[in-house]
Structure formats: structure tokens, C-alpha cells
């Protein structure tokens, strides 16, 4: 997939047309991991990079901590859909354990931020449904199902679905934050 994007980009740089490009590149349904790889490669290929991702994100997130566990996924969804990278990553503890869609273990909020930068650059929207949490004192096991929509480079609407399982913990400021996020659940 990334090879197709790079080949298409090189074709355009070498004088190829977008019409030829559109007929040469197919955009199949993607898994969440494939989508994130494509989004990141696409962002780099068109030199959007971190600058555009930051430009899309709201500047400073002065978001209040989410103290109501029932509002936690609402806050995550709202921040994601607004492209609020700072607010989104504020919902993770500094030393979070994060398993990305490619099943690569990442450690820390900065890695989570990097993982979301390329995705937010293409302005997707997400709906989190079937939200559940099981609370024990200041720790909760949470699950959800999600639907992610985005437009591929040809403007065709794509939809992915999947589920998440996470562990969140109430912090000293009263806000709930992810301490473990497993984003590798099946996506189609």
C-alpha cells in the first residue's frame, strides 16, 4: 500500500497526470493498521508532516480533566473529531502503555501523539458506540466499538469499524486517563 502511494507520488513528480494516477491506483478497504500506515505515508509524501497536523489541531488544549467516567469517551470522541491533538493526548498518562494498530508496543504520551498526528492530518471522524466500563476503585476496564470515516485521496468515502479495550485510571487532578490502550483490536 505504501509502495503504491510512493509510486504514484513519484509518477506525479515525473510529469504523470492525476487522471493516469487515479486509474493506476486502487483504494481497497483497509484495516485500521493499513489505514494509519497509508495516512502517515500520504502525509509525508505530500509534505504535510507534523506542521500540518499541528495546524489542524487546535493550539493549546486547556481542556479540563474528564472527571465523570460516563463522559470520558464523549470527550475522547469530541477531541478526536475536532483534531485537538493536545486535548486528545491529554487523555493519556505520561507513561501510558499503547499497543498501536500494527501491534507495536509504544511507551509514553509522546509516542501516542506521534501515532495520531498522521491520522488527524486527513481529518477523519469517529463515532464510539457500545461503551462499557467496569470500575474498581480508581481503575476502570473499558470497551467500545467504533466507526471511522475518511475520504481517500480520490475523494471516495471510506469506513472502518473495530473495537477497543483500555484501562483508565483516575488521576490526582480528578481526571480519568488511559494507562493502557490496546488499539490493535480487529478492524475492517
TrEMBL record:
Q: Read off the SUPFAM superfamilies from this record.
A: NTF2-like
Superkingdom classification of source: Bacteria
Show where the DUF4440 domain sits.
69-177
Entry's Pfam families?
DUF4440 (PF14534)
Q: What is this protein called?
A: DUF4440 domain-containing protein
